[in-house]
Amino acid sequence: MKVGFEGRERKRESDQAPKPIFGEDGGGGGAIVAAMITTPKLPDRQPTMTVEGAAADQEIISWFEGLAENAGMVQTQTLRRIIELNHRTEYLQKWLGRDLRVQDLDPAALESLFSSSVPLASHADHEPYIQRIADGDTSPLLTQEPITMLSLRVFPVRAGGRILEFIYSSKQFQTKGGLTVGTATTHYFASEEFKTKQKSTKSFTCSPYEVIAGEDYKQSTYCHLLLGLAFSDQVEIIASTFAYSIVQAFIAFEELWEELCEDLREGTLSTKLTSPEMRRAVMDCLTPNASLASKIEKKCRQLEESNWSNLIPNLWPNAKYIYSIMTGSMQPYLKKLRHYAGDLALVCADYGSTESWIGVNLEPSDAPERVTFTVIPTFSYFEFIPLYTRKERDHSTSAVTDDFAEREPLPLSQVKVGQQYEVVLTTFTGLYRYRLGDVVEVAGFYKGAPKLTFICRRKLILTVNIDKNTERDLQIVVEKGSRLLRQTRAELVDFTSHADLAVHPGHYVIFWEVKGEAEDSVLNACSREMDAAFADRGYVVSRKTGSIGPLELRIVESGTFRRILEYYIDHGAAMSQFKTPRCTTNQVLLGILDRCTVRRFRSTAYG
Ligand code: AMP
């Protein structure tokens, strides 16, 4: 098991320029961070991949049923194991003392001692320890076992046939203390585990490792597509870590298909591929195939006529489903994904993070809009901070943050259906009561294990004065606005936003990249619609009194968001984990957006 974490607060909201050494923001490149022990003691017995076929499936199901049945008790034991393993670390001794005798306490007493003595923490609280580990301090700081690698995430991939996987490694580097740092997916793709998974499921990704590890994501995408076409009859699954990568790849395909067919016909490789390792590895898999190339070419000509609708089932007729994270910040790409996928099933990948894998999707046929993730109680010790919107807030309760009011964290066994929570993790890899920053809602239970709906990142993203809007609020507003766009022949490619406080009164700016023609009157209506759609009381009141100015919709030229992606990739972000920042105060990004703005519209929603 490989789990890690990264500099989340700096990372996702992209308020700061990417760090030159430790990377990025948007895509799991990470400011320094993440602990990953290579030889941890695993929580209780895990199902193995050594048993064949149905027996292996049965073993996994029985293991999971047992866990779900006793989720609360399993959590208490999981915490006990974490403390047993790590109570002599500097971090835990600071809070639990040096004299703790774990064996003298029963698990429930230990659980209550832990939550009353160890404070809730953010990345900033752990960072000094991680920095020391990166610099080579080998004393037990966060974990008893030595940390041998710093990482960001592992997402297990399901079995299937041949998989056309749009996956990408990012650059790895060494810390002063000699540890390898890279995104978690980067470590995973380079690991034995990734190879074993392919062997034991007898299902191989189309691209050799050299393509996944290529330094230029555009070249890697070209090769993924080329090999995907070469193996088109064998491909059963189309996959990526986050749905963004699949959508990007097929947008690129619309421009590359002729060149790809040429290479397929001749068994050659475009000169745009400059990496000798990648060229060699791809050439080893490729043979000239004129008939396949002609067949694909013919289909592409027809697809071009229909604006590439149903592209995937047409070119990969044996594909059974698409597998990726499609929820949360990936939801805005669903429409485009469905456009390419036609009726093909969209299977939502599980819910996890660099810090810890959290929940699995037990109903693969559920649409992304309905999917829930059942918490696996052995992966970490989970706590849940009840969240209330300000309106519902009970004034007798304690802490109030900017966006939500919150109450004391609860253990997994005490969460309630319909309630929203922030997830808190205590992991085997040295994070203690770590606030993940994700808001989830309990949709139900599978036996004793809660089923979570992912709601949004907790952090407020748009605020001028008393108004407060989250990523989710923005997503709903943009969805409403872009519906008007769809009545024309234009579509929304991507979006971001900024609260402009440099002018008075401050106001929201929403940047759209649009494909196709949209008239001024339509875009004016879109800006009005979005302005009126922010339901937050603080916003509505401020707009009515004029203390927040009219929302501004700015249209940026085609390719702007690709430039933003490239900016992050250049600074160490991983394509596989990239998430477009939905709100930014990053000056470099704002510079790009400014230079690329081609049209501006001011809402007239409030007169
Ligand atoms: P990373 O920062 O790359 O480690 O990504 C982890 C984050 O991605 C989580 O904290 C969530 O915010 C988001 N995420 C992961 N899995 C899902 C999912 N299935 N649905 C929605 N968001 C997810």
Automatic annotation (TrEMBL):
Positions of region (Disordered): 1-28
Keywords assigned: Ligase
GO MF entry, a single one: acid-amino acid ligase activity
Ranges in a coiled coil: none
Highest taxon of source: Eukaryota
Family: Belongs to the IAA-amido conjugating enzyme family.
Protein name: Indole-3-acetic acid-amido synthetase GH3.10-like isoform X2
Natural source organism: Phoenix dactylifera (Date palm)
Name of the encoding gene: LOC103723981
